[in-house]
């Protein structure tokens, strides 16, 4: 049997849903893994050989270890993720260590670092604006001109099974929020508001289940500087 790789900054993920588009996949992976620590890069590939696989590169090994331990078997787009530490350093970590060696293009999908070659140009552009988080924040939709809701102005409502989410970043979407909340028992659905990306509703079967999700994710940052505000919704909000 192959020996398990030692702890690495990079987490290798397989058994991902191959039908999910790359951009959607990267945003959703960022949303659920950023809770464990700073993410330096998320690597996916267009090639059929690497479909259903991804690499999440953390700033430190402790964050990566926590992610592997906590998310093993996590249901993600209807499939259970399988996590392990990568066998080689990603490009960004190798450059930090001073061990980076340029690899032939033909080997682009053979290793973690080479897998990153598929998105090298995008990573360079993102790095110039502050990295992955800045790149995600730059994904503005037409609704970016919307008037944001001040989370502090929302009065507390009596507990019920529907949650009201505010202070969401422009990159948030239905799939990303579904992945984030589906880990909680009793989850029913996410309801986005047409023309808005900064607010959403999440419904659970009971108010006990919605309260657990609220307490667990209130203040969670999908992106830096965007702590999500969760309150109970008014009855029959939409």
Content-based structural category: alpha+beta
The main pleated sheet reads as: 4 strands, antiparallel
Distance linking N and C termini: 55 Å
Percentage of helical residues?
Answer: 25-40%
Please list the strands of the largest sheet in the order they lie side by side: 2-3-1-6
Strand content bin: 15-25%
In the CATH classification, which architecture of the domain at 10-97 applies? 2-Layer Sandwich
Alpha carbon gyration radius: 19 Å
Tally of extended strands?
Answer: 10
From the 3D structure, determine the CATH topology of the domain at 10-97: Alpha-Beta Plaits
User: Count the helices. How many?
Assistant: 8
Please give the CATH class of the domain at 10-97.
Alpha Beta
Reading the helices and strands in chain order gives EHEEHEEEHHHHEHEEHE
What's the average pLDDT?
A: 80
Which spans of ≥5 residues are poorly predicted at pLDDT below 50?
A: 106-119, 138-145
Shape, per Cα inertia axes: elongated
According to CATH, the homologous superfamily of the domain at 10-97 is: RRM (RNA recognition motif) domain
GO molecular function: RNA binding
Subcellular location: Nucleus
Keywords: mRNA processing, mRNA splicing, Nucleus, Repeat, Ribonucleoprotein, RNA-binding, Spliceosome
Pfam family, one: RRM_1
In brief:
The protein is of the alpha+beta class and 238 residues long.
SSE order and pairing:
Elements: E1 10-14, H1 22-33, E2 39-43, E3 54-58, H2 61-71, E4 75-76, E5 79-80, E6 82-85, H3 91-97, H4 112-115, H5 120-127, H6 132-137, E7 162-166, H7 174-181, E8 187-192, E9 200-204, H8 207-217, E10 229-232
Antiparallel strand pairs: 1-3, 1-6, 2-3, 4-5, 7-9, 7-10, 8-9
Helix pairs in contact: 1-7
